[in-house]
Design goal:
- The structure holds 3 protein chains of 3 kinds.
- Chain A is α/β, with parallel strands linked by helices.
- Helix content of chain A is 51%, strand content 10%.
- In chain A, the strands form 2 sheets. Chain A has a 6-stranded parallel beta sheet with strand order 1-8-5-4-2-3, sandwiched between helices.
- The longest helix of chain A has 23 residues.
- Chain B has 2 helices and 5 strands; from the N terminus they run βαβαβββ.
- Chain B is globular, with a radius of gyration of 12 Å.
- Chain C folds into 3 domains: 208 residues, Aldehyde Ferredoxin Oxidoreductase,  A, domain 1, CATH 3.60.9.10; 167 residues, Aldehyde Ferredoxin Oxidoreductase Protein, subunit A, domain 2; 200 residues, Aldehyde Ferredoxin Oxidoreductase Protein, subunit A, domain 3 (Orthogonal Bundle), CATH 1.10.599.10.
- The chains are: A alpha/beta, B alpha+beta, C alpha+beta.
- At the B-C interface, loops of B face α8, α9, α10 and α18 of C.
Chain lengths: 388, 85, 624
């Protein structure tokens, strides 16, 4: 394997996955000398009745839930963070549990900064001030749709990103009682995000042993369980596997560079207000097709992760790159029944494409040209029928 | 008097001008003492309003009719129908 | 002067890129199906413009369309429509204006004008009956609206101009004609992007005459009688303008206060229509012709100014917790000078004040303070400092700086001056309005609050009221006549007049379709037929008229769905859906989901809000 001249990798989080994972929370909190967490929950998670299940697991513990703030919807804004921080202080809480993925985690991180740093808003940090030290313990109970940022050392509140190594959650709880998705569409979106992230890591020329090690099982889980999870969102085994894949892909991706699909999807999501996961699902096949056409060189890891050791061993070394891309294409293709497959089907306004290509190329650090990005988007425009 | 209640009627839409109320102040409105149990219609007549069927009356944000019984401390807003923009 | 019966049916199509123009005709079928004004504007662009174009690019088109009523002498008919793809919302926008340009263009011999392409250098367009001249705008580019309009009016009877905001592509820039504006959706920026500073029409080249003169005269008499009998159109509008609704809305908790966190305020009487009329000695300053006369001017700060109307007063006043009418007028004057929509500007400033309060941006703006507001208005118009970002509208500003949860817009268009938590049907109207946060699309608050005919807090039948009013107003805006005339006409039918009010209210609350269909609006189609000399069949003519309104509304929706609009966009700002208000005895929000589902069903949309093919076929809309 290639040895990089230099690499860095940060993953602070402990992952507790499997049956009765929720019951370990009191012990985990105890390890941080905390016993009164504030729970920040996604509204959609509460509506699905998961809050009740969650509370039940604390019935025999010494932990007292300081409060449950369940006003978190799709958008994480400072107003909500301020409200939750007030609740945190008023109830004398000492730790935070995010119940749900995506905005609940972003918001929990923001509340953590507010209460730990004893500040009212994040304006100083947006202007460059660093987070001074370790924050309160933060546990994430994964549930609902992931935005691919949960395990990252970053938060996005009010569409503004704040990066600090202290922002990594301390513990991830992946419990089969919480992970089943509400619908195939939601599972597919999370899956598409994880897939795009794992793909970006495994095809990045700057791949290092650690990002590869973490992205590898993420891709393997996706290859095996994504289609199944989308078809049967309530399937516990598949949902646990996909939740693991999401956390792992997110952790690896936060130590890697964004791929073309991630950048383009991010730009289009910003322009249209539609989630990036949907665009990633559409754009990734076009990115892969462009790589196949270009015969781009990538590490064998992609194929090994996606096809498993048997398939890998049975394929001549010279063909593994191409086969890796083909298998990836198949994995994404499995989502075509639940998510749109082309930008035209999404009714994205064509004039956004040019701007997205330009912005993505500018953010890629000269890895992709505007023309390459534009070409991928042009293919993604009417990709219907072309995806396997 | 024990059987009297104090109410306040605020006139807008030029009704105050039509009633020729002297030194009328929109903020203060018209303070009146009326016998307990009287209806808005009675108070409006007493204030000198000749016709009031086309007007709108509000008490604590709720629209009321001229047949509504008045309560002590009531503040009634009296308007002509309006259209907005 | 040449006499023309009803309508010229001539379209002037201008290509700025090639500096050429063509003349085409409105065909009979389209005239019958889309009437004119808004409907015709949409149809013309539907036939000519691809979806997905950049609103500020060469491929976008802007249409100015006159109705059949214009120039005929029908009451309140001095209105024309502008239609384009909005740079603020990215979808179709239509805006009605009562300025003199409409009459000038129609009496120059044109029923519609479509502008496409982009001029290589700033120009203004001089229109006469033969066509258009492209004249360099060197002397007026960079000038404010007052100066630019004064210069153009030397060459014709009516002009359209943009201010510096339009030139700077401010997405809330408007277009002015006289003291009236093509206000919403940033049409000024569309003209600015095409390097067009203004358009002047010669006017007075033809005379419009109705085909059935005697019948038309009789109808006009009846129309005027209705307007003069109605307490709204002849009373409060005439005396205090649109701002006459301020006290009623404040009393019922439906004015925006502090960026839509509240619905009433103790100081609001300071900016009411009554106070302004008394303080500024107002007199009429209306569109022409007009019988209602809601527009006023008066003496403010020692000079004669147009009196701010309801929306301006509330978006630049109560929404910012500013209750100084002179300050509101000052802001209004700045908008008239630079050319910006006061509603959107107020929404943006409200967002900016709250964002400042929450530490998302740094400005000197503060609720309740006029300090820094005028400077910020200038900065937005001239795209200076943070004003450059605010000039993109509250949606894009919030995307950049955060605060999307309190950016008060629907589909990118900032909300007008009615708080929907006090009138939930009006909230549904905001969510479903085609151009975004628009009060005029259905204006159900008139039924809920102003005429007190329905419980404002219940979602019951609100979907039907919204649908009915949307169809009616789409048809009225296609005739084209002032929307306010509807209030005079709707309550005139015999059954409505003789029914006791409580009975009507019970009927409206429990059997809204029956109650709404009691409203006889046949006067509108009757006038249209008299002008064009067509035979009018009572009742059937009215049904056809309402169907034409439905067609116009659904066409606009369909055009928007081609731009990506669906159920996800038919929503309200989070604040209105999730936060209760302190001013309410019992906190409540807008039960949108419940109403929206029924609305889609009654409209014939699928569950994602897309018009079904069956509906499009029934309305004769060609599927593209």
């Amino acid at each position: 394997m290639h040895i990089p001249d230099h690499y860095e990798f940060l993953n602070h989080s402990k992952i507790i996955s499997g049956k009765c994972a929720l019951e370990t929370i009191p012990a985990e909190l105890g390890g941080y000398d905390a016993q009164k967490p504030l729970v920040i929950a996604l509204k959609s998670v509460v509506e699905r009745g998961l809050k009740k299940k969650f509370i039940k697991t604390f019935s025999n513990s010494m932990v007292v839930l300081g409060g449950i703030y369940d006003e978190v919807r799709e958008y994480a804004g400072i107003s909500l963070a301020q409200d939750a921080a007030i609740l945190f202080k008023a109830r004398g809480c000492d730790s935070i549990i995010a119940l749900g993925c995506g905005p609940a985690v972003d918001l929990a991180k923001a509340v953590n900064v507010l209460v730990s740093e004893k500040i009212d808003n994040l304006s100083a940090h947006y202007e460059g001030a660093a987070i001074k030290g370790p924050l309160k313990p933060l546990i994430v109970v994964t549930a609902g749709r992931s935005n691919g940022r949960e395990a990252a050392n970053a938060l996005v509140v009010d569409n503004r990103e704040l990066v600090s190594d202290f922002l990594c959650p301390d513990v991830f709880i992946i419990d089969p009682r919480m992970t089943p998705g509400s619908c195939g569409e939601s599972v597919a979106e999370s899956g598409a995000t994880a897939m795009a992230q794992a793909f970006a890591v495994l095809t990045d020329r700057g791949i290092n042993p650690m990002t590869a090690a973490v992205a590898h099982p993420a891709m393997s889980y996706l290859a095996e369980y994504l289609a199944k999870g989308v078809k049967r969102p309530k399937n516990r085994q598949a949902s646990v596997a996909l939740a693991n894949a999401s956390v792992m892909a997110s952790a690896a991706y936060s130590n890697s560079r964004p791929g073309m699909a991630n950048l383009l999807a991010g730009e289009l999501a910003e322009a249209t207000g539609i989630s990036a996961g949907r665009f990633e699902r559409i754009i990734l096949p076009s990115v892969i097709a462009a790589m196949l056409k270009k015969k781009a060189w990538i590490e064998d890891d992609l194929y090994l992760a996606a096809a498993g050791i048997d398939g890998y061993a049975a394929t001549p070394a010279g063909e593994r790159t191409q086969r890796g891309l083909e298998v990836s294409l198949n994995i994404v293709g499995g989502l075509k029944k639940v998510l749109p497959v082309s930008l035209s089907e999404m009714k994205v306004q064509k004039h956004f494409l040019e701007k997205a290509a330009k912005a993505a190329a500018a953010k890629s650090g000269k890895r992709f040209t505007e023309a390459e990005c534009a070409s991928v988007l042009a293919q993604a425009w009417d990709a219907a029928g072309k995806v396997k | 008097m024990a059987n009297e209640i104090a109410i306040r009627i605020k006139f807008f839409s030029g009704i105050d001008r039509e009633l020729k109320l002297e030194n009328y102040n929109h903020e203060q409105g018209l303070a009146m003492n009326v016998p307990a149990g009287k209806r808005l219609k009675w108070a409006l007549r007493t204030a000198g309003m000749p016709a009031f069927s086309n007007h709108a009356y509000f008490r604590s944000g709720e629209r009321i009719s001229t047949r509504a019984k008045l309560r002590n401390g009531d503040e009634v807003t009296c308007l002509k129908p309006s259209g907005g923009g | 002067m040449r006499e023309v019966i009803g309508s010229n049916n001539r379209i002037l199509e201008i290509d700025l890129s090639t500096k050429k123009f063509t003349v085409s005709e409105i065909n009979k079928k389209d005239r019958n199906m889309y009437l004119g004004g808004k409907g015709m504007g949409l149809k013309l662009l539907y036939d000519r413009m691809e979806p997905g174009v950049d609103p500020l690019g060469e491929d976008n088109m802007i249409a100015f369309t006159m109705g059949v009523f214009m120039g005929s002498g029908a009451p309140c008919s001095g209105r024309f429509e502008a239609v384009t793809k909005s740079p603020l919302t990215g979808i179709m926008t239509c805006s009605s204006c009562g300025g003199p340009f409409g009459m000038a263009l129609k009496t120059t011999g044109w029923d519609a004008m479509i502008i496409r392409g982009k001029a290589s250098a700033p120009v203004y367009l001089a229109i006469d009956s033969k066509g258009v001249q492209f004249k360099p705008a060197k002397g007026i580019w960079g000038k404010d609206m007052n100066q630019a309009e004064a210069a153009l009016l030397k060459e014709g009877a009516g002009a359209l101009v943009i201010g510096q905001a339009g030139e700077n592509l401010v997405r809330i820039a408007n277009i002015r004609s006289g003291h009236r504006f093509v206000g919403r959706g940033g049409m000024g920026a569309v003209l600015g992007s095409k390097n067009v500073k203004g358009i002047v029409a010669k006017g007075g080249e033809i005379k419009i005459v109705p085909a059935k003169k005697e019948k038309f005269k009789k109808i006009v008499r009846r129309f005027n009688k209705y307007i003069n009998n109605n307490p709204v159109t002849s009373g409060t509008y005439r005396s205090f303008g649109t701002n006459s609704a301020t006290i009623a809305c404040n009393t019922t908790g439906t004015i925006p206060v502090r960026n839509f966190t509240g619905g009433s305020h103790g100081e609001v009487h300071k900016i009411s229509g009554e106070t302004m009329a008394e303080r500024f000695k107002t007199k009429w300053d209306t569109c022409k012709p007009c019988t209602i006369m809601c527009g006023h001017k008066g003496t403010i700060a020692g000079e004669e100014r147009h009196i701010p109307e309801y929306e301006t007063v509330h978006l630049l006043g109560s929404n910012l917790e500013i209750f100084d009418p002179v300050a509101v007028s000052d802001f209004n004057e700045l908008c008239s000078k630079y050319g910006m929509d006061t509603i959107s500007l107020g929404g943006i400033l409200g967002w900016a004040m709250e964002a400042t309060e929450k530490g998302l941006i740094k400005t000197s703006l503060k609720f309740g303070s006029t300090e820094g507001v005028a400077d910020m208005i200038r900065d937005i118009a001239l795209c200076r400092g943070i004003g450059k970002d605010l000039a993109q509208g509250s949606r894009l500003a919030a995307k950049k700086y955060g605060g999307e949860d309190f950016a008060m817009h629907v589909k990118g268009l900032e909300l007008p001056g009615y708080e929907p938590r006090g009138a939930v049907g009006h909230g549904l109207g905001y969510a479903t309005a085609n151009r975004g946060g628009c009060h005029l699309s259905s204006y159900v608050i008139s039924i809920e609050i102003l005429f007190n005919m329905a419980n404002p807090f219940t979602p019951k039948w609100k979907h039907y009221m919204v649908k009915f009013m949307e169809n009616l107003f789409a048809a009225i805006n296609s005739l084209h006549i002032c929307q306010f005339t509807a209030y005079a006409v709707m309550f005139e039918p015999f059954l409505v007049k003789v029914s006791p009010f409580p009975l009507l209210k019970v009927l409206m609350g429990n059997m809204a379709p029956l109650a709404m269909n009691l409203m006889d609006v046949s006067l509108f189609p009757e006038t249209w037929h008299a002008i064009l000399g067509k035979h009018y069949i009572p009742y059937l003519g009215m049904l056809k008229f309402i169907k034409a309104g439905e067609r116009v509304h659904v066409l606009e929706r369909y055009m928007n769905t081609r731009e990506g609009i669906s159920k996800k966009d038919d929503t309200l700002p989070l604040r209105l859906l999730t936060e209760g208000r302190k001013c309410d005895a019992k906190e409540h929000t807008v039960p949108l989901e419940k109403m929206l589902k029924k609305y889609y069903k009654s409209r014939g949309y699928d569950e994602n809000g897309i018009p079904k093919k069956r509906l499009l076929r029934r309305l004769g809309i060609k599927i593209q």
